[in-house]
């Protein structure tokens, strides 16, 4: 072996070690965040900034702001998509996967354990589980209030939100929600004027993703979105049905994790996979764990089909996020500066508020609030969130204890 060949071999070995070290570093950093990031997606973005921008200096403030803007525009869990994007910028596709695993796995495991723990309980009568359902009322109400102030602040968008809520309640269906989102986007494209669109400065996000890979990701995204429901009508498989349900939910949810509630409830409860009580108890428990709210899918999958169901549901729920990030990063700067693109998403965000408002009534309110005691507990939890700014996990624990007390008194 010549000195040149030996040197090249050592260089390749060094690169492999550096890449492996970077992947492990990403996994360690994201796992730390997955264990400690309470408070929802906005809080997650603050944790990410502290860890990745200020402490580790993996990217600068401007690049981080651009990533946040990108992921706010995409359907799916914005905080998870930011973490995946940073992982990809640091360590390629494997880095993105490592970042997702670290941030997602702790809460997913906790919710799987919770699903097994309540398997032998009558969730319709357990007081503390009913308290979790009441906590969901306060948390979804907080989400509606906060999102409406920023996403439907004027008369037109507020009217769209109310109209969408009415239609969603009168004709409850996952397809109704999809149609309403599409119509809202079309309305924005046709009727919003250029004066209502803010000028977006030119920016650039460094990424190793090639445009060819981005095109393939978009083909896969739409191919699965269209093809899975068709395949489901031909192949009768529980796993395929689960994968299709959660893939569509992860693909079509704008506005964050809370909006996934009505879509999944409309798909899973009428199908007989679980009861409303089981659904809302798990949703309440999801507020008490760190990490992304989309790990609620692991709980639902476990209730339906044990560990295998949890894995299928979790992978299907987050696969659209990977495909969307890969497909959009190379084109982001061009897309975000187009007025038509901004107009479409302004009205889509207003429609999201309406869908969430409808969910606040049914199933959240109708399944949790039955007595004045229930309403008082929900009101107290809402005050803790809105006025005292207490973390959601603490409010969930308070509600669970309150539910147990109400059960003893009644």
Task: Provide an overview of this structure.
The chain has one domain. The mean pLDDT is 83. With 410 residues, it is mainly alpha-helical. The longest helix is centred in the N-terminal third of the chain and has 40 residues, at 78-117. The chain has helices at 3-36, 41-55, 61-73, 78-117, 127-151, 155-170, 174-191, 211-234, 238-252, 260-268, 276-286, 296-328, 332-336, 339-368, 372-386, 392-409. Helices cover 78% and strands 0% of the residues. Keywords: Cell membrane, Membrane, Transmembrane, Transmembrane helix. Belongs to the chromate ion transporter (CHR) (TC 2.A.51) family. One of its GO terms (molecular function) is chromate transmembrane transporter activity.
């Amino acid at each position: 072996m010549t000195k040149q060949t030996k040197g090249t071999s050592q260089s390749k070995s060094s690169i492999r070690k550096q890449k492996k070290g970077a992947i492990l570093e990403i996994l360690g950093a994201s796992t730390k965040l997955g264990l400690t990031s309470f408070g929802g997606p906005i809080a997650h973005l603050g944790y990410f900034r502290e860890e990745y921008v200020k402490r580790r200096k993996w990217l600068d403030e401007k690049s981080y702001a651009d990533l946040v803007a990108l992921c706010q525009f995409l359907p799916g869990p914005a905080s998870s998509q930011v973490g995946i994007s940073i992982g990809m910028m640091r360590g390629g596709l494997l880095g993105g996967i490592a970042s997702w695993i670290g941030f997602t796995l702790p809460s997913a495991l906790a919710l799987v354990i919770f699903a097994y723990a309540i398997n032998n309980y009558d969730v319709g009568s357990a007081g503390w589980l009913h308290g979790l359902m009441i906590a969901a009322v306060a948390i979804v109400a907080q989400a509606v209030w906060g999102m409406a102030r920023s996403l439907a602040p004027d008369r037109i968008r507020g009217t769209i939100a109310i109209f969408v809520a009415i239609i969603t309640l009168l004709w409850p269906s996952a397809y109704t929600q999809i149609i309403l989102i599409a119509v809202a986007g079309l309305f924005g494209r046709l009727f919003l004027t250029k004066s209502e669109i803010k000028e977006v400065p030119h920016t650039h996000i460094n990424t190793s993703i090639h445009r060819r890979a981005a095109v393939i990701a978009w083909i896969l995204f739409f191919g699965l979105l269209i093809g899975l429901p068709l395949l489901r009508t031909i192949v009768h498989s529980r796993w395929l049905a689960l994968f299709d349900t959660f893939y569509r939910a992860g693909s079509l949810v704008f506005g964050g994790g809370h909006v996934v509630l009505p879509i999944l409830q409309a798909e899973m409860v009428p199908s007989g996979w679980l009861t409303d009580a089981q659904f809302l108890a798990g949703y309440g428990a999801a507020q008490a764990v760190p990490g992304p709210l989309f790990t609620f899918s692991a709980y639902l999958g476990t209730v339906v089909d044990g560990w295998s169901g949890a894995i299928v549901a979790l992978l299907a729920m987050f696969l659209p996020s990977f495909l969307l990030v890969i497909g959009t990063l190379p084109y982001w700067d061009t897309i975000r500066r187009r007025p038509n693109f901004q107009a479409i998403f302004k009205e889509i965000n207003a429609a999201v508020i309406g869908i969430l408002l409808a969910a606040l009534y049914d199933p959240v309110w109708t399944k949790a609030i039955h007595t004045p005691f229930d309403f008082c507990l929900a009101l107290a939890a809402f005050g803790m969130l809105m006025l005292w700014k207490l973390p959601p996990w603490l409010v969930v624990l308070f509600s669970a204890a309150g539910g147990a007390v109400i059960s003893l008194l009644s």
